[in-house]
Design goal:
With 483 residues, the chain is mainly α. It has helices at 2-7, 14-29, 40-69, 90-103, 105-108, 110-121, 134-160, 164-167, 170-174, 176-184, 198-201, 209-228, 235-252, 288-315, 324-341, 345-350, 353-366, 401-412, 435-443, 448-473, and strands at 73-74, 85-86, 190-192, 204-206, 260-263, 273-276, 379-381, 386-388, 391-393, 418-420, 427-431. The longest helix has 30 residues, at 40-69. Residues 1-6 and 116-129 have low confidence and may be disordered.
Amino acid sequence: MAQDQALRPRPLPRALLFTLAPTAAWFLVRPLIEPAPALPALYAAFGLSILAFLGSLYLVPALGPTFIRANLKGRDLLKTYDTPIPESQGLVCASLYILLLILFIPYAFSESITNHYDTARRAREGLVVNEFPHHQLAVYLSSLLSLLMATMLGFLDDVFDIRWRHKLPIPIIASIPLLIVYYSERGATDVVVPIPLRWLLGTLVNLGPLYYVYMSLLSTFCTNSINILAGINGSEVSQAVVIAVSVILNDLLFLPWAFGFRIPLPLHVTEGVKVGGVWSAGMAYGSRILVERHLFSLYFMLPLLGVCLGFMYHNWYPARAFPGDTLCYVAGMAFAVVGIQAHYSKTLLLFFLPQIFNFVLSCPQLFGLVPCPRHRVPRYDPETQLLYPSRAEFKEKRPTALASLVLRVFSALGLVELTLDERTGEISQTTNLTILNVFLLRLGPIREDSLTRVLIATQVCGSLMAFFVRYGLAGLVYDGNRR
């Protein structure tokens, strides 16, 4: 039965295509009709996100046999059947995502193109000259170039199976276009000092080159953190979906809606979250620059959410398609792009709280203190069809004093389960250092789809905590609208 389910693609309802395709067309055509809406490019971005969803929904199963014939296939390690499943299909999603972002360029700069054309036809008087926004175009194109490089490097990783400790610095290469454009436009490298430390450091600190190191490390973390927290059906793409939704909701708080309201928070240190009001723009507090930055973020996040939702339909338990490293690289780089270019990297990191926890937990294995097997996925019991924590063994060498100390601290915190050698008392085995194994230790053996739901719930709770910290507690350490 399970084998039959794995062989057959999930059904694709035609009603969905016939309903969403005209809707996407309307959102793409509406900005071209007078009177144009207040934010015409946002209409187009939403229309392209619908096309992204439909494209990934229909192209992934259609191209699956092609990937299998190209030997881009694998076996689901947590299933009993050996049916080949197409791998690296994140390449389909990444290609579609970047193609739609390229098609979006005329919408994003249509107003500037029209104004530039009209100005050239009119006799220029005085010193008023409307110039084309070359800086915004450079930022947009450098972001696309970084996404293209992330796609290429992710696919190379899928093909050549690069080891963990070697793949960690790869995203730094993809972030170079972002950093070069940021430097060429004399991007700010000052950071606002939290209030408790201002007596020592002052209000602002100029990090200089260290700020570029921070941005390159941000792209590395965003890319690899999703890739590290993987191994069960739907895990990678569900993380991307929840983070993308969180970023979109955060962006919507800064837009110039025609109406306004306030979301009260249960704290006396803040007035709550203000939303809407034409060009008072909610949390943008009248800043047109902040509105434009968060519009830029929405232009990248809406199509990403579309392709991820479409792929999630086929990657859900039991998976008919695997994303490979390509989707993780592109999604992570997309988050890094908006965090850097829209200048809200601290807020972005708050949405990665589960990934930060998983990365810190995984560091002893990633950096060689603890043996790191090729796959750290949970152990599957075919008789009960439940997942159990997988283990790493100290076979070739004894654990160092530092490794033993770290593992015993983790064990005291309930994050790992250790097996001791009866003769020497040294650690001989430990559960693999991933948040998925922590869930299994604390909750007991569960089904794979249930473990994915636990991961999604954790990601949602992390986003709720991020919003609470960003808009509820930030006033304790920053004055004004510091982001």
